[in-house]
């Protein structure tokens, strides 16, 4: 439903629909914390399900068009299965890099150091939320754009914005890293060092998010999936290699290497075909 709203240009409504179940679950969790019932986990499970159902009903009412009746439903064709499978695979490949690193950190570093890394990773990940928001707002326009030249120009501007945002922010995070230990307290000793090295990944993450959105807008989901799978493999390999040498910054450096590998591959996958066939857009427009 949120994707359908986004495709019709109602980006803000789409994101509100995505956030609705999260907000309801937060209210349920807060209420349970204040009430202190005997079986909070069971009640939260019920609240979780009701939040999802309520969001589904809300989304059904605000959709711009009606869904086909069940009697009109049909199985997709083979071509439609192939096309849709790439977007389905994105749900796995896009989520894995952001969660796999914390699992690997817990396994290789132990609960204490793994927890410190998870906190740092959440902070670093939150810094790139504006880039994600930019791409969510931009993808519908890129999809609707009929001119290849204008679409490519818009893609270049998005990449420039990602660079202009990521490099200064990474530098600021690098310099501000010591402040986080003071903010979080003595129990998070080592958080400053973790964030210090994660700052190297901020510009790459901005580029990776931007190139991934461009691939979706240009209907190349398998390119994005392939690059993200490479990033997962680089992350796992780098983490194991650095941890085996007892490197103190094993996980932050592995994350930075993984992010940069995906950013570089994504930029190459976008720019190289256009450099090799610069006349295509002009031929199509002519």
How many domains? The number is 2
Give the end-to-end Cα distance, rounded to a whole number of Å.
Answer: 37 Å
Mean pLDDT: 81
Tell me the overall shape.
Answer: globular
User: Structural class of the helix and strand makeup?
Assistant: mainly alpha
Helix content: over 70%
Order of helices and strands: HHHHHHHHHHHH
Cα radius of gyration in angstroms: 22 Å
- Poorly predicted regions: 281-286
Q: Give me the count of strands.
A: 0
Strand content: under 5%
The number of helical segments is 12
Largest sheet: none
Task: Give the topology.
Elements: H1 2-7, H2 11-35, H3 40-62, H4 78-93, H5 96-127, H6 129-144, H7 148-184, H8 191-198, H9 202-217, H10 221-244, H11 250-276, H12 280-285
Helix pairs in contact: 2-3, 4-10, 5-8, 5-10, 6-7, 6-9, 7-8, 7-9, 8-11, 9-11, 10-11
Characterization of the model:
The structure is a single chain. This protein is mainly alpha-helical and about 290 residues long. The chain folds into two domains: about 1-70, no CATH class; about 90-280, no CATH class. Helix content is about 85%, strand content about 0%. Helix 5 (about 95-125) packs across helix 8 (about 190-200). The chain is globular and about 60 Å long. Residues about 280-285 have low confidence and may be disordered.
What would the keywords be for this entry?
286 residues; mainly alpha; 12 helices; disordered C terminus
């Amino acid at each position: 439903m949120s994707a359908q709203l986004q495709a019709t240009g109602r980006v803000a409504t789409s994101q509100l629909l995505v956030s609705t179940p999260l907000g309801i679950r937060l209210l349920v969790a807060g209420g349970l914390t204040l009430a202190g019932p005997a079986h909070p986990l069971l009640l939260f499970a019920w609240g979780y399900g009701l939040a999802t159902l309520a969001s589904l009903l809300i989304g059904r009412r605000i959709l711009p068009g009606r869904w086909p009746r069940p009697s009109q439903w049909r199985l997709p064709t083979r071509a439609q299965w192939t096309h849709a499978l790439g977007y389905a695979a994105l749900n796995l490949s896009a989520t894995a890099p952001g969660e796999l690193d914390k699992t690997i950190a817990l396994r290789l570093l132990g609960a204490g150091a793994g927890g410190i890394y998870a906190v740092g990773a959440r902070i670093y990940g939150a810094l790139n939320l504006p880039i994600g928001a930019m791409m969510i707002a931009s993808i519908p326009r890129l999809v609707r754009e009929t001119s290849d030249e204008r679409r490519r120009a818009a893609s270049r501007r998005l990449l420039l914005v990602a660079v202009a945002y990521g490099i200064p922010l990474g530098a600021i995070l690098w310099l501000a890293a010591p402040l986080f230990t003071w903010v979080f307290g003595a129990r998070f000793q080592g958080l400053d060092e973790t964030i210090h090295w994660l700052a190297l990944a901020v510009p790459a993450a901005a580029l990776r998010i931007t190139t991934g959105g461009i691939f979706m807008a240009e209907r190349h989901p398998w390119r994005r999936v392939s690059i993200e799978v490479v990033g997962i493999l680089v992350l796992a390999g780098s983490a194991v290699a650095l941890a085996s040498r007892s490197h103190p910054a094993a996980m932050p450096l592995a994350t930075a290497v993984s992010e940069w590998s995906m950013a570089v591959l994504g930029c190459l996958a976008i720019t190289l075909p256009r450099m090799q066939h610069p006349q295509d857009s002009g031929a199509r427009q002519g």
